[in-house]
Amino acid sequence: MRDVSVTWLERVWRRTSLVQRLTCVALVPTAISAVLLVTLLTRHQMDTLHEMGRSTADAIAQQAASVSGEALRNGERREISHISQSIVQLPQVARVRISDRDGEIIADRVNGTIDDDDNLTVSREVLDPTSHRVVGSVTVDVSVEDAIAAQRTSVNNALLWLALSLFIAVMIGWSTARWLSAPLRNLAIAVRQLGLGDRTVVVPVTDDTEIGDLQRGFNGAASQLLHAQIGMEREIAMATEELARKNAALEAASVAKARFLAAASHDLRQPLYALTLFSSGLAVDEYDPVRLNRIAHIQECVEALDHLFSELLDLSRLETGAMPAVLRDVPLDEVFEEVSVNFRMVAEQHELRLVVRTTGLWVRCDRTMVARILNNLVSNALRYTRCGGVLVGARRRPDGTVRVDVWDTGLGIGPEHLQHIFDEFYRVESGPEAGRPESTRRGLGLGLSTVQRLAGLLGTRAMVRSQPGKGSVFSITLPEVQPGKIEAPVAATPGRPAPRDVVGMRVLVIDDEPSILAGISFLLGSWGCEVMTAEDAQQAMEAVHQWIQPPDIVISDLRLREGTGLDVIDLLDRYYRRRPGDPPPFARVLITGETRGDFLRNVDQTTTQVLYKPVSPERLHDVMVSAWTVHHAPV
């Protein structure tokens, strides 16, 4: 913003160079003094000329009055005319007039032309020499034209010499100013080069005055700056190398963590999966209340382990990129209804309210990821709420997005925890009141970390606001889209068999873990299935030879000791499919603890359903029914 208080003189001064300023400073006082001196001397000389002219005129008039007194008394006009003629011929006398006492002009003589501007007029009374009475008067005009002309010539000469002197002063001042400003100009150029990165700039020391001190000081500062820059560059290079090493170490640690999680999610899930199968089989045909109670406790512990491994599995799949986002237009009410169905009974069991507000909004997202985010948030909210309830709602925002909120009236989160609440393995421990004391399921601190990672895959991030003792609200924002058409469920047709139970199904189970084969064989047998087991492709072919018809369902592990379950399924496909283009001869379910994308990339999930270990018996039962139904659906 311009400073309106700056005068025009200051603006002109700012636009001048240093040489111009120094010249102006040196010349202006001299010029002002010279002009004033010439003016004063000229005025003084003019005053002196006029005073001298007046004195001369007064003397001539006095002389004329003294010599013409006798003639005026006697009335001798000829003598008076002669006297006036003599007086007018004196130097500088321009005119002489002699009058009698009645004012009649007796003699009037003129010398050349008369210019009243350049004449001085003096009058004197003429006295009678005897009686001293006034007998007339004499008027004398003295011309100062020649003196004034001479004075003007003198003034012109003085002005000429003044102009010459000022010119010489300007040249001397300009040269001196350039000589004085040259070191400063060189310093300014050196500073500019230093700012452009020329670290070897040096200015010559021209003298031993303050300017020389300034030049030496600049050279010293430039040298110190050069050494400081060299040292800083060396430190930056070392810090960059150290940062690169640390980044490499972090990347290696991240890869190692991902490999560890992948190994844990596969190798550790194998015995857990077998434990799940055997614990479910223990309750079959068991009626002793004591044993049933112990079995229930075992199943509860297995369920807690399953929850912990599910968190590890989700993190592993996110780390390895096995969960890409598939974006489509989704009605939020559809996701809200799923959340309500999943947790309404849980809320009622703990005397809490779960309110899911319906909305007509549609968003662009991955439906499965959004459902998982809301399921995790609602599960956490119910776990840490002891009275009140949980509210799930959505609100349209002015920027074209929709904010989905999960409110609770729980214990809240302290300010010191908010910035770490989405970190991996971070749990808020605030004593026995942190959650319901009857809950036996304790997480690893990965639920909210998974929520944040899923939100990142959707192009957003989860946010939290909380007040200790009053509750918390977790939010995500999703892009809003126009409402579309909701696909209606396909109605049953006469040619399509209705979903059935698994009783009587021929099931081939392929796994390289004997304990898992034993557990799932026992579980499926308790459901009424006809079960064959195999650990590799050769045993699978031997098993299916015992059946005349192909199996209804093939349940296989992904990783086997020799090859993969996909290889065995392809072998069975070629065995039963006589002609190219025939439909798949059996339904297939793939069960795995693997999370890496390169293992799952070749799985056709349109015909093969994938489950991740450990699989609960209820989930396995539902998937078997679903796979059988999809396999027998009309094409």
Find the structural class using helix and strand composition.
Answer: alpha/beta
Share of residues in strands: 15-25%
Q: What characteristic shape results from the CA principal axes?
A: rod-shaped
Radius of gyration: 59 Å
Number of β-strand runs: 16
How much helical structure, as a percent, in the residues? 40-55%
| Low-pLDDT sequence parts | 431-441, 488-499
Largest sheet: 7 strands, mixed
Distance between the termini: 76 Å
Mean pLDDT: 77
Number of helices: 16
Question: Could you describe the 3D structure shown?
Answer:
- Helix content is 52%, strand content 16%.
- The protein is of the alpha/beta class.
- The strands form 3 sheets. Strands 5, 6, 7, 8, 9, 10 and 11 form a 7-stranded mixed sheet that branches. The protein has a 5-stranded parallel sheet with strand order 13-12-14-15-16, with helices on both faces. The protein has a 4-stranded antiparallel sheet with strand order 2-1-4-3.
- Helix 5 runs parallel beside helix 6 (210-282) and helix 7 packs parallel to helix 11 (447-457).
Brief summary:
This protein is of the alpha/beta class and 635 residues long. It contains 16 helices and 16 strands.
Topology readout:
Layout: H1 8-15, H2 18-67, H3 69-74, H4 77-88, E1 93-100, E2 105-110, E3 119-127, E4 134-143, H5 145-195, H6 210-282, H7 289-319, E5 328-331, H8 332-349, E6 353-356, E7 362-365, H9 367-383, E8 389-396, E9 401-408, H10 415-418, H11 447-457, E10 463-467, E11 471-481, E12 506-510, H12 514-526, E13 530-534, H13 537-544, E14 553-557, H14 565-576, E15 587-592, H15 597-600, E16 608-612, H16 617-631
Parallel strand pairs: 6-8, 12-13, 12-14, 14-15, 15-16
Antiparallel strand pairs: 1-2, 1-4, 3-4, 5-7, 7-11, 8-9, 9-11, 10-11
Helix pairs in contact: 2-5, 5-6, 6-7, 6-12, 7-11, 8-9, 9-11
